[in-house]
Amino acid sequence: MSDIKIYNTLSRTIEDFIPIKKGVTGIYSCGPTVYHYAHIGNLRAYIYADILRRTLVYDGLEVKHLINITDVGHLTDDGNDGEDKLEKGAIREGKTAYEVAEFYTKAFLDDLEKLNIPQKEYIFPRATDHINEQIEIIKELEEKGYTYKINDGIYFDTSKFKSYGKMAKLDIEGLKSGARVTENKEKRNITDFALWKFSKADEKRQMEWNSPWGKGFPGWHIECSAMSIKYLGKHFDIHTGGIDHIPVHHTNEIAQSESATGEKFVNYWMHINFLNEKDGKMSKSTGDFLRLQTLIDKKINPLSFRYYILTTHYRKEVNFSFESLNAADEAYKKLLNFCIGKNNNLPAGRHDGNVSVKYKKDFNDVIFYDLNTAEAIAVIWKMLKDDQIKDEDKYSTLMEMDSVLGLDLANAKKEEIVLTEKIKELIHKREVARNEKNWALSDEIRNEIRNLGFDVKDTENGQEIVLNGNL
Ligand code: AMP
Ligand code: ZN
User: Fold this and answer.
1) How far apart are CA 43 and CA 48, in angstroms?
2) Are 266 and 338 in a shared domain?
3) What's the DSSP call for residue 433?
């Protein structure tokens, strides 16, 4: 038993989280396809994977967490057909598919580090390093009679897995009637999917391997079954991914894993909703998307982005806008300002306050209830504005809460007052107003700055900015 409740896509209800065994809790998070940079929607999925891990650790559990790197065989239509995304990336960039994968894997890991998702807490297995394990599962499925061979590969016969599509509540008849004309006519069922695809006779692929069925490459879904089972066992605790994975990828993972092992695959499935741009879903394949570096170029701290993501519950959609991101940036910097010394009156060794029992309980109540980070942040602000709590106690409570939220508040630097772009702009406007001797405007701006948490002193050397403790 744990204190945590999570929404399980399998049952569509909030359930008590009960780990399979005392000791290590296993989590598998579907990772990125490394043919391009991660976009900020993808990163939302990993920020929440990290919140999940931290919450379990905060509750006293030990966690083994995998994020796989899909560096092979992921086709452009996310199904069985289309071009290979990595080979396409290789053509686009004039590199080999392996170089493309290596480059974007590193870029992904760098993004995680910037978002305070510490690499050392995770295992990042790569699909290309686990081809044998994938072949072994396909062999197992073949022996048990779940597979068949057609012109372009070895397929999984979904009609043989009785509960196929249960989690996704798939409407198989509906899928049949909506099938595209391009669908592979040789497939026995519309939902059947490739386990192993053959290299075409007239084509030399960059990524291909020998197998009992001939030269080719694995289907996309099989890597996640092979790697999760290898590192976490046939039956493990939690599997995460974006909501787009429910109807196909995770449905197929369940079918092939449970058919191969004869055991239940995963106890809890957690799905993170989408981050959309104004004109809809953010997509990597178009190449036109926002990535973390785009935000950094606009002087947004990556951890302000993390804060922004945490202000919406993971099961709700986020409609991204720079206005709301900037508001989050300001709020986050207010938190940093608090940590470096509101009114500069926090004692030097600021770790020795007492954790507020009341606010810790309020925080636990919401974070343990399906990771409600939005409410958890509301608890933080309520506490910071509570005059009954001493500053050093607020600080110590905040540090404990931040072990879950991962906003890296402990490393806020005392020597720098963290000014938002907005405040910098106001200071500049006030400078101009003063030079023009427009005192009315200058005072108006001073008030605006005061409401944002800073006092302005006019000195011989110009404006001096000090914290005033307005939160
Ligand atoms: P991919 O690299 O496309 O395999 O996606 C990596 C992860 O990001 C998967 O868990 C996806 O479900 C998730 N994902 C993809 N697009 C979005 C989006 N717009 N918002 C949130 N998560 C997404
Ligand atoms: Zn996966």
Assistant:
1) 9
2) no
3) H
In a domain, residue 181? The reply is yes
Domain range for 462: 421-467
CA 391 to CA 348: how far, in whole Å? 12
Structure tokens at 11: 């049952």
Cβ of 266 less than 6 Å from ligand 1? no
- 2-6, 92-96, 127-131, 287-291: range with lowest mean pLDDT: 287-291
Into how many domains does the chain fold?
3
Flag whether the pTM goes above 0.90: yes
CA of 45 to the centre of ligand 1 (A): 7
Check if the beta carbon of residue 71 is closer than 8 Å to that of residue 130. Answer: no
Per the DSSP assignment, residues forming a β-bridge with 454 are 467
Ligand minimally distant from the alpha carbon of residue 74: 1
Q: Is the CB of 37 under 6 A from ligand 1?
A: no
Query: Which of 391, 383, 385 lies closest to 359, judged by CA?
Result: 383
Q: Is residue 291 part of a domain?
A: no
370-423 pLDDT, tens digit each = 999 999 999 999 999 999 998 889 999 999 999 999 999 988 876 667 788 888
Return the CATH number at 85.
Answer: 3.40.50.620
Sequence-distant (≥ 6) Cβ neighbours of residue 216 within 8 angstroms: 153, 196, 197, 198, 199, 208, 209
Based on the fold, state whether residues 379 and 458 are members of the same structural domain: no
Nearest-ligand number for the alpha carbon of 219: 2
